[in-house]
């Protein structure tokens, strides 16, 4: 048993060290590295190992699988057919105990954590501001990966105060240490401690391809919101907003948000940097959402999301959705008997492509997935204020986001213009849905607020003979099974029901 575990964990340090394409400018090429001898023996080597740790979260086993596991169970997407890819089981809540997207995500996540622990154990605090920054980045990455893991495999903190089982906490490089699952609360407490440490060590000079003080603050805002520590969620959101480092993209530029390199986008707080050499082509996130000479184009904007966004035609966020029309032989758009364009379909499902993961720097399948951005900070603050009873403050932040989206007048909320809503919290949650769609947050927003995921629209998620799929927050498949092979390697791991 121990030998098998060693084979699992040793590649982590090797991969963090032996990475192709060393660059003299780590700021420009944040995911390249040096040789293994240079990696663990000197401060310069540990800086290179840190670049290797960023490389772990860029790996498709991490980034692509996390996106599928977090976003595909939401009510923002509609799958247009079955697929041999296990993403189908994430989408329709028919999880398996052995499923490659959970297997690979789990393993890559703990490899990344192991890599951060190597640096944290070897790099002494206080040597220099530069090395403290490096140390802080590893504390941030360790916290971020634990956070992603606990949200995939542990129930939302707010459902039971974190009493249910979360994931293993790994804070050392002892390969013989096979811990059981900690509770969700214990994992969250560990994450908060790591993020506070990271913020104390880091400065503010790094681009959004790297962690910095404000990046740690931004994730702390999200973490505390999930923990229902609303004053803390507001405090950290304010630290980011008031830092002056970030500004909302102008209204006219909003539809092009995700086409810009993240370092040039003043709204992006942290993104998982992809350059042209990292383009995953058919295996990219955008490939499932759009086909434009490349890409499968099988996952579409759901009817329920389109109904919500279409309430106001001037909403610039509608432009992230591209309806696809049938073409005549001459390439012109085909029109029906009513004179309107005929929507193209796949297996009878209308095609509405999504562009949030496409066209970075003009490349169809290239994108740097945005993990944290300024708009979320305003919406975190809005939700926290709504739950504290500060309705006016909550609506003020919602309206700020709506104005940026091009809305004005009667499209803005007030105490006298609730547009049919009876709760300010409902207003905020729908605005989060509108603004953060397809950014891997909707599933968590629904279930941590103890609501039901209602998917009452066409798609292959529908049970036979039914026109809706409803997943209550108490459903066992709100979380995924711990990969069966990991339980074999570590019998202390208890399976989810």
In short, what is this structure?
The chain is mainly alpha-helical and 497 residues long.
H and E order = HHHHEHHHHHHHEEHEEEEEHHHHEEH
What's the total number of strands?
Answer: 10
Order of strands in the sheet with most strands: 1-3
Basic shape:
globular
C-alpha-based Rg, rounded: 22 Å
- The overall pLDDT, averaged over residues, is 92
Q: What percent of residues adopt helix (DSSP H or I)?
A: 40-55%
CATH topology call of the domain at 35-204 and 452-496: Serine Threonine Protein Phosphatase 5, Tetratricopeptide repeat
The CATH class of the domain at 35-204 and 452-496 is: Mainly Alpha
- Termini Cα gap: 25 Å
Largest sheet composition: 2 strands, antiparallel
Strand content: 5-15%
The count of helical stretches stands at 17
Explain what the structure shows.
This is RagB/SusD family nutrient uptake outer membrane protein. It holds the Pfam family SusD_RagB. Keywords: Cell outer membrane, Membrane, Signal. Residues 249-497 form the RagB/SusD domain. The chain is mainly alpha-helical and 497 residues long. It is 42% helix and 6% strand. The chain has 17 helices and ten strands. A two-stranded antiparallel sheet has the order 1-3. Mean pLDDT is 92; it is low at 1-28 and 33-37.
What labels describe this entry?
disordered N terminus, two-stranded antiparallel ribbon, 42% helix, 497 residues, mainly alpha, Serine Threonine Protein Phosphatase 5, Tetratricopeptide repeat
